[in-house]
Amino acid sequence: MSEIHSTAIVGDKVEIGENVKIGPYSIIEDRVKIGDGVEIKPYVNILANTEIGPETQIFQNAVIGEIPQDLKFKGEETRTIIGSNTTIRESVTVNRGTKDRGKTVIGDNCLLMAYSHVAHDCLLGDSVILANSVGLGGHVTIEDWAILGGLVGVHQFVRIGRHSIIAGGYRVTKDVPPYIMAAEEPLSYRGLNVVGLKRRDFSSEKRRTLKKAYKKLYRAGNNVSEAKEKLENNFKDSEEVERLLEFLENSERGIIGS
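Above: the chain sequence. Below: its structure as tokens.
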């Protein structure tokens, strides 16, 4: 049975699952879908065309699904989609999409810490962590298991690869390849994300292969085109290197340097 506080304002056209909790003074507009087991703390605003997956928690003062901070937005019907078992902490803001992608998406099992901002048309995969006060520009793509440290600012249209980690306080203006650590100004490659890969059961053999592959990309004096050719010729049996090659092929802003 769901629990809705008497001071909460919930639209007549809100779909509410089983065992949902909605706290005091929260406002849920029409055309919102809330999955089973969701907990919405006090003073949360959830705007129209938002879908929230099961078991997600949304903390005080978060604003989910507000219109984009984009002068090109003309009121088109777009969406905000939040996955299951995701945690959205205090004062997080997530804007809905524009006509470009039509939606802003946050995957399953994500953690968005206090004061982080997800702009319009961002696509976040599963198990992504945004630490306190991370700011994402529009159209950013973050792949599964990536971690962004506190106060990181990400330029619009940037892509961040799976299992990568970005140290706190830095600007991200180019794409960050998968499986790596990135730090310093300008943001640069600083080795594999070894601790993260170990935690996610990447074998020592896979880590060695990735280390060799990134040596070709960042430590052997190759440009990106030359590195891609060598990766294609020397790492044909590695799924992880295939993902790296796909990332490089699809990079539009170029990748961070060494």
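The mean pLDDT is 98.
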